[in-house]
């Protein structure tokens, strides 16, 4: 019996309790997810019929029941399969999909499930006038399946005209209507009111939902149906209360009770335990949509994607298909549905996270006003997805979330209208924020209502986290304005943007006025388009435009303390008056890499030129401003080199000011010795087998190095037949941090890491 025959709820989103799991389940690795998706796609394509559909019949069965995929829901299998494949990244131009899409364009679909799934396909396509018209037609069909009077008012049936209802049908229909609304099609305002009133009235006393209203069904309350109820309220909230202020006590109470039920019964999700009305794969997809649209990383205490992805990897069959049984039993239709739902869950759940919105309440029992515009950054993420033609997500984290959760994005977003002073952020909270930034992240904030108290508090926070750094208005030639998708020269209105930099990249950004959150919350982009484009540019600046990381992928490396080092390398960071340490986390990360991969302990200490460098094999000198080393500093470098030490010098961020000044010093360091190209056979430029390393530059550097891209431009001073001083005009310091911030003139993180690792291993012998 198929999913539709049993009337299972599929999809949508819900908000849940903000509790945090201290020990989150281990997720499947990104490689495992990728392999599972590839196998699942291959299986799904293998079940495509000769007419490029997934239907069991070439036309609807005139005697088929309204809930059968061969009857009233004919066309739905093809819509679901095409939707799953598009969501995994398959191109709509692929001949196999293009012909399936052509079928969907021509087919006369009438069923609520089938039509709502077809809208999901349209939503994955370029939004041409033809596609907009297709969405408009399907929206009309879905609206016609809603009961507008009687006891069933606000609920949908299998088809039009409605003669009954179920929460499953209504959930599907509302998903389709919501998708149409997201595509800027007009939905009758009364639609959301009718749906909301009906779902609230049909809620079970436990807080969950069943197949129908209490007393009208023998079926139990389930996670899938409850997700549908909470999702309906959550979605309707955007349209009934666009300012984020829920004015109805009944609405909020119903939402809270539903969220509580879901959190308390999450043990029925992604489990081999069987229970009445158990439909695991559609339920997983429903949970996935809940988590992504609500933005919550956790449902209650459960990391939903970690739990789901691990379970799905374990459940996939050798053929690549998924099914509730451990063997391929049942109809092809059953296998097709379960496999499509599994693919959707894995693929959409792992989409890159554009922003993490921070609940910065110091005391969780006394939340601050961090979420007055609950859909602000959610709408931004949706806008970015449209612009880059790729799904990107967002999620909510708290001060108590593991910092690894924060690092699933490059941008941590804060919004508010008040200073956080009662209670204030703790020293641990501030240390965590600083760690996130130093490890490559960016904190981005907007003052709700152009609040001066919030803006002042945020600026003060930046000064505390990064002493000596000064806030300034971003210049017109900043990479955020010039090298991202939307150059500011085309904006009708300027946007006031303040930044706090380490001389290499922005650490914190503030929109002190303009009330950006108001425009993002409202959702319309026709007014103040600059605000939307700025947010896109900030995301692209911090994350890079070329290779967004999928969920689960991270540049952060932690040392495995269980690995015992077999040798030690000591490195001195050369300290002077000036910006000598713009990227302190880089060497911590490289130390972890050396320990984990090479069983090498890297001891890093800062030393002034007046300190002894005895016992160090390597010294590192960097900066972002012009630097003038006095005679004592020059003598210290000479003494270190004469004793056999190696000095590594790089211009952090690719700073021209530092490069010009230090090159003059280096060329005068040893009589008759000038900077020259580092020999290509030097250990820094070859792997452990003597083959040249793959060298890549960041986008900003490629514009400068031009045809030299692919070859390192590292120079050296050769003393006593060895490269004693190694110098890079292009950045290495930010590279070993691992972040992908734009505007840095230097090597990619992987190239910087490879070169410095090879250098250290060669001098540490």
If you had to describe this structure to a student in words, what would you say it looks like?
- It contains 24 helices and 16 strands.
- It has 765 residues and is of the alpha/beta class.
- It has a seven-stranded mixed beta sheet with strand order 4-3-5-6-9-8-7, sandwiched between helices. Strands 11-10-12-13-16-15-14 form a seven-stranded mixed beta sheet, with helices on both faces.
Radius of gyration: 29 Å
Measure the end-to-end span.
67 Å
Order of strands, main sheet, comes to 4-3-5-6-9-8-7
Please, what is the average pLDDT?
92
Strand content: 5-15%
Overall strand count: 16
Largest sheet: 7 strands, mixed
Helix content: 25-40%
Overall geometric form: elongated
Task: Give descriptors for this structure.
single chain; 765 residues; alpha/beta; 7-stranded mixed β-sheet; 11% strand
List the helices and strands and how they pair.
Blueprint: H1 30-46, H2 76-87, H3 95-106, H4 112-123, H5 129-143, H6 167-182, H7 189-201, H8 223-240, H9 249-264, H10 280-294, E1 298-299, E2 302-303, H11 304-315, H12 332-349, E3 353-359, H13 376-388, E4 393-398, H14 403-406, E5 411-416, H15 427-438, E6 442-447, H16 452-465, E7 471-473, H17 479-482, E8 498-501, E9 506-511, H18 516-522, H19 529-543, E10 567-575, H20 585-598, E11 600-608, E12 618-623, H21 631-642, E13 646-651, H22 656-667, E14 676-677, H23 699-705, E15 715-719, E16 722-728, H24 749-763
Parallel strand pairs: 3-4, 3-5, 5-6, 6-9, 10-11, 10-12, 12-13, 13-16
Antiparallel strand pairs: 1-2, 7-8, 8-9, 14-15, 15-16
Helix pairs in contact: 1-12, 2-3, 2-4, 2-12, 4-5, 4-6, 5-6, 6-8, 7-8, 8-9, 8-10, 10-12, 11-12, 13-18
